[in-house]
């Protein structure tokens, strides 16, 4: 697939530091594996502490000039970057699919989704308004001014390798910050291609710096940024245990943090729901990226009065999903990212079956001849008879598995939905207007979908509560997360 790129020069294997593409200081390399074939598609730099320090030095050196530019000047560069991303949608999608595995149609959608954040924050860059405060004493003027926090370290996941880094870099750059970034080891090629287009758009050297590293060497890279007081903000999307580590380690220098962490999203179908719409909403929210998203429903609660009919409708849709590599235009579900992911999914299903659940469809690892090659595939699955004591009720499965729980009443299901340390997303379907307001108010989540399964939008704030983290991405609140407020008091005006 990578051999069909129109712009072969978008395939970059090196770090990008101070405007230059550089190998890792120690010369180490990392293989990038296609999860559909288990074949290496590239060798990239495997970096360490020296590379992290070099990136930080470059970002710090570039910060004064970048923050000194007007919002309009920063916006113009972001708009050029946005135009280049959209113009190279097909090449970027092929890179995403080759290293991440998602079907090409989804990868194309991710490119435009990520680009929407670049466009949004290009526009927001010109709107960093301050505040004139009514003076309490004659002869003074009081002002609140928004300023960039400084150097930002962005650490991004593999499941949306373009959208997640775009969602972090765009607001940081719009606010006047410079960036050091470390993408996931599974998907470094997409991040490097995106940065190559940023270089083409004309961002000054040192404004954006990219350091590639394996899972084993990532702590070595990130620890440099955690310990250095010149890094003023960490933005991270990933697991809750890693997020807690970043919070603890960054406390020594009191960095600002945005943490978008794990989820355990409930999806509730009330007895008065439009069942066809609820099934469609679940298909959209659950099977996007093969169930490998942080806002995927992990626990599906269906009222006992409509349980059997809902399961019947859902199972028919799930059984019809086509599983295969991105090279197959019929594919709707691609491979899981790696063997660890498949093992976790399989462990959750086997535990559920041992505790009394029943498979309606799916429930197995897929291998040839069901799918071509030796990729990491798992069959889209519906389970009934799920209970709170099962592993999949407590842990995020991160795969194409729908466990269905029965419930009898509103108060009961709200309690069950909130009975988790996580609080990223929640969904429910109902046609009762009073219930909609009651349940939306009571659900403990940063994002709530009401009669809707597709929630993400660049204009809306994205983030969680409880152990799903803090901070918001997207919307005007996303820009504020890369700024601090300076109070200025001028006296002697009488």
Polypeptide structure, described:
The structure is a single chain. With 494 residues, this protein is of the alpha/beta class. The protein folds into 2 domains: 2-261 and 468-487, Aldehyde Dehydrogenase, Chain A, domain 1 (3-Layer(aba) Sandwich); 265-450, 3-Layer(aba) Sandwich (Aldehyde Dehydrogenase, Chain A, domain 2), CATH 3.40.309.10. The chain has 15 helices and 24 strands. The protein has helices at 49-68, 71-87, 89-100, 104-124, 163-175, 188-201, 218-227, 240-250, 275-287, 307-319, 339-354, 391-394, 410-418, 433-442, 475-480; strands at 15-17, 20-22, 29-33, 40-45, 131-133, 141-148, 151-155, 178-182, 208-210, 231-237, 256-260, 265-269, 297-303, 358-361, 365-366, 377-378, 381-384, 401-407, 422-423, 425-429, 447-450, 465-466, 469-470, 483-490. The protein has a 7-stranded mixed beta sheet with strand order 14-17-18-13-12-20-21, with helices on both faces. Helix 1 (49-68) crosses helix 7 (218-227), helix 2 runs antiparallel to helix 5 and helix 9 (275-287) packs across helix 10 (307-319). It is globular and about 75 Å long.
